[in-house]
Design a protein that fits this description.
- By secondary structure, the protein is of the alpha+beta class.
- It has a single domain (3-208), classed as Class II aldolase/adducin N-terminal domain (L-fuculose-1-phosphate Aldolase, 3-Layer(aba) Sandwich).
- Helix content is 38%, strand content 14%.
- The protein has helices at 3-19, 74-83, 96-102, 118-123, 138-148, 168-188, 198-208, and strands spanning 29-34, 37-40, 56-58, 64-66, 89-92, 129-130, 153-156, 160-165.
- It has an 8-stranded mixed beta sheet, sandwiched between helices.
- Helix 3 (96-102) packs across helix 6.
- It is globular and about 50 Å long.
- The relative contact order is 0.15.
Length: 221
């Protein structure tokens, strides 16, 4: 996919996410690696009204090359790319259910959501929770970069999810799966729900490449 097509694809996914309520106002940001550097949604831009020609273009060090001024979360995106050289896209949302989960007390810092469905385990694996840092803060980028070494998806405390992928479609679909699982969890959390077993999770991770490890939510541990 060339840069022109990538710009159009970013705007297409962004509008779809906006129209379905995954973002509001000027929240959220998307970036994709291209030959000339990194395309990223501009600061204070709305996912529902992006212009492909005005997307920000920066080099791999974050220097602004073209387009509107980049999102203040650019350092966080760059930190993910440094930690995950095989990934080429990052999606950060303020999606309601995932944000709500990120505000709950007592979450496990190493695994904030239970393995409720096969597709969550396949697309997300384990979901670490970072400490709170203000948007755009250097400490936020540092903590995300550290977590991204072993995880493609990270939940920012009182903020929202960050998800990377081998391409833009992969990152968006994983972010959508995370939000759906957060919705299901909020529906079930006051009930006696049954997450996937450790054996089932390990088999899914073995088949589909996610890291194998125990979950505090599994009841047969």
């Amino acid at each position: 996919m060339n840069e022109v097509e990538t710009r159009e694809r970013i705007c297409l996914h962004a509008k779809s996410l906006h129209d379905r309520g995954y973002t509001c106002g000027s929240s959220g940001n998307i970036s994709v690696l291209v030959d000339r550097g990194v395309l990223v949604t501009p600061t204070n831009s709305c996912f529902g009204r992006l212009d492909p020609e005005r997307l920000s273009l920066v080099d791999r060090d974050g220097n602004h090359l073209d387009g509107d001024r980049p999102s203040k979360e650019l350092p966080m995106h760059l930190a993910v790319y440094r930690s995950r050289p095989g990934d080429r896209a990052v999606v950060h949302l303020h999606s309601s259910a995932a944000v709500a989960v990120s505000c709950l007390a007592g979450l496990n810092l190493d695994d904030a959501l239970p393995p409720l469905t096969a597709y969550f385990v396949m697309r997300i694996g384990r979901l670490p929770l970072t400490a709170f840092h203000p948007p755009g803060d250097a400490l936020l980028a540092e903590s995300v970069g550290e977590a991204a070494r072993q995880h493609r998806a990270i939940l920012l405390s009182n903020h929202g999810p960050v998800v990377s992928g081998v391409d833009l479609d992969d990152a968006v679909y994983a972010a959508e799966e995370l939000e759906e699982t957060a919705r299901i969890y909020l529906t079930l959390r006051d009930r006696d729900f049954s997450p996937l077993s450790l054996q089932a999770c390990d088999e899914l991770r073995r088949r589909f490449g996610q890291q194998s490890s125990s979950s505090p939510f599994s009841k047969d541990r």
